[in-house]
Specification:
Blueprint lengths: L3 E4 L2 E2 L2 E2 L1 H16 L5 E7 L7 H6 L4 E6 L8 H15 L3 E5 L2 H14 L3 E5 L1 E5 L2 E8 L4 E7 L4 E5 L14 E5 L30 E5 L9 H11 L2 E5 L1 H5 L20 E5 L5 H7 L4 E6 L6 H4 L2 E4 L2 H16 L3
Parallel strand pairs: 1-4, 1-6, 4-5, 5-12, 6-11, 7-11, 13-14, 13-15, 15-16, 16-17
Antiparallel strand pairs: 2-3, 8-9, 9-10
Helix pairs in contact: 3-4, 5-9
The structure holds flavin-adenine dinucleotide.
The site of flavin-adenine dinucleotide has 28 residues, from helix 6, helix 7, strand 16 and helix 9.
């Protein structure tokens, strides 16, 4: 029986969905190795301890809470040292992080401090004997590489949304701990976190993403994409690089190799050709719907459902149908 570790990411004092995904993965790995304990770590400003019980709901047996006034925002050096110290002392089989913006900074630091290898941007994993096999998209998603992690612990960062968070309630023991290094000694300090709009759903958290491409022809036509997203009610709006480069949408909306990597339940691609660099960011979505007037557009190769036609005719009708189905008229 070997325990596992999960880093539960938070922002503004709230746990993030990717944190629950990491705990779910740790639970799966612990169960697969005979039912060891799952230890989760939360780091944040005083008050973050109130979030600890929620991790028990997703299968954590033990939650270590590190609260410090200087940790309201992510502190790369302090969080990495604290996570590495916990993992070192726990003799875990595997440690899970998110491949979110924060996790992509944190997980390599932790792996380096532990002197073990990291499988990053993992979309699936399994335990095989003493090893962990981790699948990870490479070459802009054209191939899925299976990595065999032989070191202990195996450190993995999970692509947001690739794994569904599952509630498996436990009454978690909650333990307070101090940061492994003094936050005052940190050389890198995040002074501000700018969010586009406080109410906007984050692309990494949204179960549905409606994305628009150059086929929309002008910035103002993105209203069609926004209307469909609003009709779903739980959707975020994404874009291709062609669109963000033209200034039709902010750079933060860009999905793809040089933008956000997303795995929503549903991805609707509107007027998007499906260039490999775009596919690299969204081809692991669970269901892909594409609307394109060119029946040979590459996006149809990855789409589960394709609508060949003029988006300007299709979008208002589709939005209407979604509104009716969701009863949100
Ligand atoms: C190093 C590098 C990194 C890159 N990183 C990214 C990245 O992260 N993300 C990204 O998205 N791109 C990236 N790109 C750019 C990428 O190669 C493509 O140029 C871009 O994705 C194309 O965007 P698009 O699909 O919106 O535009 P286009 O390729 O121009 O496609 C527009 C589509 O709209 C369709 N269309 C037109 N009118 C209509 C209509 N009325 N109804 C229905 N369909 C219509 C057309 O048939 C066409 O398929 C990168 C490129 C490079 C070189």
């Amino acid at each position: 029986m070997a325990g596992t570790f999960a880093f539960a990411e938070s922002r503004n004092g709230e746990l993030r969905k990717v944190g629950f995904e990491a705990v779910t993965a740790a639970r799966q790995a612990a169960d697969a190795s005979g039912g060891g304990d799952v230890h989760a770590l939360i780091v944040g400003a005083p008050g973050i301890a109130a979030q600890a019980d929620a991790l028990g709901r997703y299968g954590a047996d033990n939650v270590v809470v590190v609260e410090h006034a200087a940790l309201e925002r992510y502190s790369p050096e302090v969080v990495a040292a604290t996570a590495a110290e916990r993992i070192r002392s726990g003799q875990y089989r595997a440690a899970f992080f998110s491949a979110s913006a924060q996790g992509r900074d944190l997980a390599p630091r932790v792996a380096a401090q532990l002197g073990v290898t990291l499988a990053s941007d993992v979309i699936a994993f399994e335990l095989q004997g003493d090893d962990v096999l981790a699948q990870h998209p490479a070459y802009t998603g054209k191939v899925i590489v299976t990595l065999r992690l032989t070191g202990v612990p195996a450190v993995l960062s999970l692509r947001p949304g690739a794994l569904t968070a599952v509630e498996q309630p436990r009454s978690a023991r909650i333990e307070q701990a101090a940061p492994a290094v003094d936050p005052a000694s940190a050389r890198v300090v995040v002074t501000e976190l700018l969010q586009q709009t406080a109410t906007k759903l984050d692309l990494g958290e949204a179960p549905v993403i409606v994305s628009g491409g150059r086929g929309l022809r002008a910035a103002e036509h993105f209203k069609l994409v926004e209307d469909l997203a609003a009709a779903f009610g739980n959707a975020a709006v994404g874009a291709t690089r062609a669109v963000t480069d033209d200034g039709w949408r902010p750079a933060t909306d860009q999905i793809g190799q040089t933008g956000r990597l997303v795995s929503p339940d549903l991805y609707v691609a509107v007027g998007i050709s499906g260039a490999i660099q775009h596919l690299a960011g969204m081809r692991t979505a669970k269901t892909i719907v594409a609307i394109n007037k060119d029946k040979d557009a590459p996006i149809f190769k990855v789409a589960d459902y394709g609508i060949v036609g003029d988006l300007f005719e299709i979008m208002p009708r589709l939005t209407d149908e979604v509104r009716k189905a969701r009863g949100s008229r």
